[in-house]
Specification:
- With about 325 residues, the protein is an alpha/beta fold.
- It has a domain at about 70-255 and about 290-330.
- Helices cover about 35% and strands about 15% of the residues.
- The protein is built from 10 helices and 7 strands.
- The chain has helices at about 5-40, 70-75, 120-125, 145-150, 155-160, 180-190, 205-220, 240-245, 300-310, 315-330; strands spanning about 115, 130-135, 165-175, 195-200, 225-230, 255-260, 290-295.
- Strands 1-4-3-2-5-7-6 form a 7-stranded mixed β-sheet, with helices on both faces.
- β3 (about 165-175), α6 (about 180-190) and β4 (about 195-200) form a beta-alpha-beta unit.
- α7 crosses α9.
- Bound molecules: 2-acetamido-2-deoxy-beta-D-glucopyranose.
- 2-acetamido-2-deoxy-beta-D-glucopyranose binds near residues 199, 204 and 205.
- Its main location: Golgi.
- Belongs to the glycosyltransferase 31 family.
- Pfam families: Galactosyl_T.
- Keywords: Glycosyltransferase, Golgi apparatus, Membrane, Signal-anchor, Transferase, Transmembrane, Transmembrane helix.
Length: about 325
């Protein structure tokens, strides 16, 4: 090699190493405060816990929404006791739920699950009715997504302490990972906006989450006009949504969303949306609304919930809820 050529390739080499170091540093910075939370997740949990509050992405912090979590137990085992208004509990290893092992396909959806975390004040703290409850399906590990929603489009709810005309909560299943579950409890202690039931939080169990939504609204939220189901990877334009809902304000039997008509079941085994003939024998799905986001008037929820308890389970939640159940309910 010529002298000059050698110098150039050495220079290129060091620039390459430098860029790699910067990229690594950025990644570590991003995950550092998550790691810090994991480290702290064995510490006692109180409803006034400040440790989640350190991160500057959190804008709206609320306290004292009625949770008491007994830290004597939490610190050493996974026993968690809520106060009397929270009848359910998570026991050692999280598996003393006495729910039978459920093979969901081809089975009637009996929904034998109970709430582990239940923020009953979300609707009933103010007896007055309010406009819109947004329930966001989220998975346990998507802590950052939930933070982001609370501080971006969800701030329409959070600026009013989740007590105004728009309110927001997240729907979770449970996990056997104790430290992840402790983090969920801490998060719920700070924000009081998590609803959790004792079925495993997996993709194939998403329909259970939507049934849990119907159940929770039926049992704990009588004073809302509309309920929206959406996912934690969605951005909702709340002002536009409220404008649209004001046009259908008086309707008590309505579901709104992006309508799919005459969709056919996917019969390719490896496909994400594969549905076997035994799960859904028909050739065409009933018309349904995209699961990315749909709205229903509150009165619809108990009707769909009751019908769901008598209906064969489908793994695609939007087709199950807004297609099969809604058409059965006419
Ligand atoms: C769904 O949850 C139930 C109850 O926890 C569990 O037994 C089942 O394995 C889960 N199903 C899937 C497909 O993850």
């Amino acid at each position: 090699l010529e002298q000059g050529g050698m110098k150039t390739s050495l220079f290129t080499f060091f620039v390459f190493i430098g860029i790699n170091i910067i990229v690594c540093a950025l990644y570590m910075h991003k995950y550092l405060h998550i790691a810090a939370l994991f480290r702290e997740s064995n510490k006692p949990v109180t409803s006034n816990d400040q440790s989640l509050v350190k991160s500057e992405v959190i804008y709206n912090v609320k306290h004292n929404h009625g949770y008491t979590i007994d830290h004597r137990h939490l610190a050493t085992t996974s026993h968690v006791h809520h106060d009397d208004r929270f009848p359910t509990r998570l026991t050692q290893n999280g598996v003393d739920f006495t729910t039978e092992e459920v093979v969901l396909e081809n089975r009637v959806n009996t929904h034998p699950y109970t709430f582990i975390i239940n923020p009953i004040d979300l609707c009933s703290s103010t007896k007055t009715s309010f406009g819109l409850l947004i329930l966001v399906t989220s998975k346990i590990s998507n802590y950052i997504e939930r933070l982001t929603i609370r501080s971006t489009w969800g701030s329409d709810a959070t600026v009013f302490n989740n007590e105004g005309d728009v309110r927001l909560a997240f729907l979770l299943g449970y996990t056997t990972d104790k430290s992840a579950q402790n983090m969920v409890l801490r998060e719920s202690g700070v924000y009081a906006d998590i609803i959790q039931e004792n079925f495993l939080d997996t993709y194939r169990n998403l329909t259970l989450k939507s049934v849990m939504l119907l159940k929770w609204v039926s049992e704990y939220c009588q004073n809302v006009q509309f309920v929206m189901k959406t996912d934690d990877d969605m951005y909702i334009n709340i002002p536009n949504l409220l404008k649209m809902l004001s046009m259908v304000f008086s309707q008590s039997n309505i579901m709104i969303g992006y309508l799919f008509t005459k969709a056919k079941p996917n019969r390719k085994r490896r496909n994400k949306w594969y549905v076997s003939r035994s799960e859904f024998p028909g050739g065409v799905y009933p018309n349904y609304l995209s699961g990315t986001a749909y709205v229903m008037s509150r009165q619809v929820a108990p009707k769909l919930y009751q019908i769901s308890l008598n209906t064969n389970f489908l793994t695609m939640e939007d087709i199950f809820v807004s297609g099969v159940l809604a058409s059965k309910a006419k």
